[in-house]
Design goal:
1 helix
Length: 71
């Protein structure tokens, strides 16, 4: 399994704009967005904005950093 992250700007409708596209073996599986300062204690964490296939979830998790999101 080959994991690849690609930085991207995401139009979320808020100040959360910095994102990462996550590809596994060439397939897009996740869009992560870094939370802005408007999220208080969660600022800087990564939010699973969209997941596809097995990563599609109803309750999206938060990740402390990109390394944690890749596990």
């Amino acid at each position: 399994m080959t994991l690849h992250l690609q930085p991207v700007r995401v139009a979320t409708g808020s100040d959360d704009r910095d994102g990462q596209l996550v590809f596994v073996d060439g397939f897009l599986v996740v869009v992560l967005v870094q939370l802005s300062g408007q999220h208080g204690a969660d600022a800087g964490m990564w939010f699973l904005e969209a997941g596809f296939g097995l990563t599609a979830v109803r309750s999206a998790p938060l990740f402390l950093d990109l390394e944690a999101a890749q596990v």
